[in-house]
Fold Protein Syd.
Amino acid sequence: MNTITSESLSNFTKKYVSQWLEQTDLPPASVDLYGIPSPCVVRTGENWVYWEPQPFPLEDKSLHKVATALDINLQEDIHGFYTTQLAGDMKASFEGLELSLVQVWNEDDFIRLQENLIGHLVTQKRLKLSPTLFIATLDSEIEMISMCNLTGEIILEKFGSKDRRVLSPDINHFMKALLPIIKPQG
């Protein structure tokens, strides 16, 4: 596993959790994750859950099932990004672009994530697009932030098209530039 990527993600997560605590006196909260079991849950509210990151529980800290399904090698950094921790998705901004950093909530979510990555890569292959691995969502349903599997660059892409713009040379620079966005629930 890539320890630099793990450190970058852990550092951002600590900053995110710390800002939640400073602004609300509570850990991060999520309406979307309410009622979904996870070792991250520390408390529940009326229709939201409060969470704290937990160590990734599986011994195999890789996305080898994704690589095997498509018979490709994945950028090393993507393994560290998705297998460092369990956490809720985290809102952030990157150079004014608001995003939600995709994270793994529980072991079932990790299986779903891998299936979604496989589906994403299969669609790209069918459309003859270079492979990318999503890492963040946007309010737009057709745009996402992904890692280019050929270069490791972090890009803004339109789903199913060649419309792509490089945001960062790699995930570590991207993570260091992220600013947490704290939006309390209720």
About this structure: Helices lie at 3-24, 64-70, 76-83, 107-126, 171-177.
